[in-house]
Amino acid sequence: MSFPLLASSGTPPAPPPPTAAIPRPPPSLAQRVHIPPHIYKHPTAILLELCNSMKELHQILPQIIKNGLYNEHLFETKLVSLFTKYGSLNDATKVFDFAKLKNEPMYHTMLKGHTHYSSLDCSLGFYARLRYDNVTPVIYNFNYLLKACADNFDVLKGKQVHAQLILHGFSDSLFAMTSVVNLYAKCGMVGDAYKMFDRMPERDLVCWNTVISGYAQNGMPKRALELVVRMQEEEGGNRPDSVTVVSILPACAAIGSLRVGKSIHGYVFRNGFESLVNVLTALVDMYAKCGSVDIARLVFDRMDSKTVVSLNAMIDGYARNGYYDEALILFRRMLDEGYKPTNVTIMSTLHACGESKNIELGQYVHELVNQLGLGSNVAVVNSLISMYCKCQRVDIAAELFENLKERTLVSWNAMILGYAQNGCVMDALTHFCEMHLQNIKPDSFTMVSVSTALAELSVLRQAKWIHGFSVRTCLDRNVFVATALVDMYAKCGAVHTARKLFDMMDDRHVTTWNAMIDGYGTHGFGKEAVELFEEMRKGHVKPNDITFLCVISACSHSGFVEKGRNYFALMQEEYSLEPSMDHYGAMVDLIGRAGRLSEAWNFIDNMPISPGLNVYGAMLGACKIHKNVDLGEKAADKLFDLDPDDGGYHVLLANMYATASMWKKVAKVRTMMERKGIQKTPGCSLVDLRNEVHTFYSGSTSHPQSEKIYAYLEKLFDRIKAAGYIPDTDSIHDVEDNVQEQLLKSHSEKLAIAFGLLNTSAGTTIHIRKNLRVCGDCHTATKYISLVMKREIIVRDMHRFHHFKDGACSCGDYW
DNA sequence: ATAGGGTTAG
Q1: Of A40-54, A458-472, A600-614, where does mean pLDDT reach its minimum?
Q2: Closest-CA residue to A124 (of A105, A142, A106)
Q3: Strand B contact with A453 (CB < 7 A)
Q4: Residue A11 carries which DSSP code?
Q5: 20 to 30 A Cα–Cα from A434, which one of A81, A224, A501, A802?
Q6: Using the CA of A315, which nucleotide's C1' is the nearest one?
Q7: For strand B, is any atom closer than 7 Å to the CB of A351?
Q8: Which residues contact A138 (CB under 8 A, 6 or more apart)?
Q9: How far is CA A131 from CA A90, A107, A110, A134, A244, in A?
Q10: What's a GO cellular component annotated to this UniProt protein (predicted)?
Q11: pLDDT band (50, 70, 90) for residue A140
Q12: Residue A795 parent element (H or E)
């Protein structure tokens, strides 16, 4: 079934849009005031009629004065009209004040000028003056005033004007009622607008369009589309014109229905609206928002004339569909062709810069913002903040934020998320508290940002608090918030709580499923991850590339090599998803981690694309676990050909050599790091105690309980050694034996565990968050600690979770 | 006719 707009397909092309669609101009001056012909036909009067700009007007002015026409009513009215038209309300006011005869048309022109160039109060003040001068108002005066109220979203003043209008006997006027419908619609009161509309004895096209666009602009796109159907069905029905089309295209974009959109396009085509820029621009926008960037571009390319708005719609269309390069190319072309970018252009472009991490262009746009005088536009600055955060320059973003005079909720949200995504968790949380102190109410966006920060921090107590906060503010029902909460619980070690929340949700996005599947995977619950994925396949939410990344890595963490291979095939065969470099990396990890090193190498050799850093990194990691120096060196050679600046890979290689006691090679890696200026990320562990998060760096003695902790570790080491623990001193070289053990003892993770044991009562589970991967000695030591101390210890490292209990770890010793 | 901030993986 096709959309009813198509109902007219058999009939010949309709005539051009009815004139009712064009805003009705007031009657001409000659109609409303009697003007004697010698004045009306005066050459200067004709010149004034032809006048097209302020510059020309100033050229004509001396003639008017020279010919003594200044005090002629016609000239006064015309001057007031022209001055207001070209934006000089001051000059218009001078002429008006000087005029002897101030009649209604004269007042009307001034009123019109006020509605355009000054505040609503000035316009209303001017109406009061008109009344004071005993001029009888006409319907046009009210239409302008109502429009001014609507544009200022001021219902209260609008209602006062409405009362005046009734007082002067215009309540039955179709025009007046339409203006009132428009007032309510623009002020977000579509319900009231509709009531008024429903009471009208007769309705013209303009009136229908007003109420339709009211619904479209107030988040009720379906109602808007229904009304378009009704307007045609009604007796003596109205045919949608270009204005109707332009108001329902955004509605169509909002419901994302390409089918309805295409039928509207057909209607546009059959009715000859294809020559109208605004219609075509709305079509471009609709196609882009429905995900069809290619069709959007076709329509865009076929436009005879374009405006900035058309370009903005296309740039934004590219950016929102992930075609960042195309967005930036079009933006460059736009500048080359001499268009002046608007705030909308800037915002879409900054979005594209941020997502594609193009900070050079981002900074160029920043300069442009200042040149264009948009530096104090909050929305633009918010976009700048986001762009800098996405490009990992939180410092610049923070500076912009601090200097922002009128921060909005969006500014706070952008900043908090920026901190959260750049590892500045504490800054994110303090800003959240700060906005709380300033009495700014958080919304769902805020909750997502804070949950993201807490997920990173991995602290269950605060996680529960923010969950409670979301419930109390009813924000937990939002899919985005709920998904962020599921992810947060999983990342805080509470997978079962995460699953409970997941089961309670009635609307789930792909990301929700992905977060849960990955949660299971990182905890080593491969079986649960696979089961949930199978459940997902039965439902209506389609798995995406990230889903497969999560499933494959879940298989990898649990040693399900064949299952993982099957899923890798499935994603291509059944879901037509092209594996990315990350997928290949995950596959190498899957095969290699299970010890099938030559098979993993074989897999790399058969890759259809040139293997990236992560692929060789996974291979090297597997070789380190399984102590295969030969293959590890082979992987490292390839890896370092790609010149990584990531310290992690270097450390991995050095550790592999150290495990094999190849000290010269270890030293070589160290030299390479020094030469490249790469520093080893210091190991850092976090532990939460009541309301405080305690941070420990390797070897640090800065914690107030430091002495106690080291003393306790001495005793602890003796106990676990008695239980069978042997310190892994093999991987430490060029220091004496007793120093080796001291070095091992001062690993951040052991400090954090000791602190946790010292400060919690027997039986309490200890949660640790570590920034790097758990080292081999810490892993063994923690297993023994869990045994002798009878404690459950949960350690989250950069990749996954380790649940230590009764001397064993959930990861089965491969990590 | 276009409009700023959002969840997953690495």
Answers
A1: A40-54
A2: A142
A3: no
A4: S
A5: A501
A6: B2
A7: yes
A8: A104, A108
A9: 22, 10, 14, 5, 37
A10: chloroplast
A11: confident
A12: strand A793-796
Q: State residue A684 phi and psi, 5-degree precision.
A: -145, 135
List residues bridging with A427 in a β-sheet: none
Please, where are the H alpha helices in A594-732?
597-605, 613-625, 629-641, 647-659, 663-676, 706-722
Which amino acid residue lies closest to nucleotide B3, measuring CA to C1'?
A344
Strands, DSSP E only, in A505-644? Answer: none
| Cross-strand partners of A809 | A804
| A420/A68 Cα distance (integer angstroms) | 72
Helix (H) or strand (E) holding A688: strand A684-689
CA–CA distance, A14 with A20 (Å, rounded to integer): 15
Do the Cβ atoms of A710 and A717 come closer than 8 Å?
no
| DSSP class per residue in A658-671 | HHTT-HHHHHHHHH
Q: Which residue is nearest to nucleotide B9 (CA to C1')?
A: A546
pLDDT digits (tens, 9 = 90+) for A360-371: 999 999 999 999
What pLDDT, in 10s, does the model give residues A583-625? 999 999 999 999 999 999 999 999 999 999 899 999 998 998 8
- Check whether residue A383 has its CB closer than 7 Å to nucleic acid strand B: yes
Instruction: Collapse the DSSP code of A273 into the 3-class scheme (helix H, G, I; strand E, B; otherwise coil) and give the result.
Output: helix
Nearest one of A185, A186, A133, A137 to A163, comparing CA atoms: A137
Cβ atoms of A362 and A391 within 8 Å: the answer is yes
Residue A654 or residue A509, greater confidence:
A509
A486 CA: nearest nucleotide by C1': B7
Helix count and strand count (H, E) for chain A: 44, 6
The answer to whether residue A31 scores a pLDDT higher than 60 is: no
Query: What pLDDT is stored for residue A737 in this prediction?
Result: 64
Confidence check: pLDDT of A9 > 80:
no
Q: Where are the domains of chain A?
A: 582-592+600-680, 685-809
Residue A566 has pLDDT above 50, yes or no: yes
Q: What SS3 state is found at A467?
A: helix
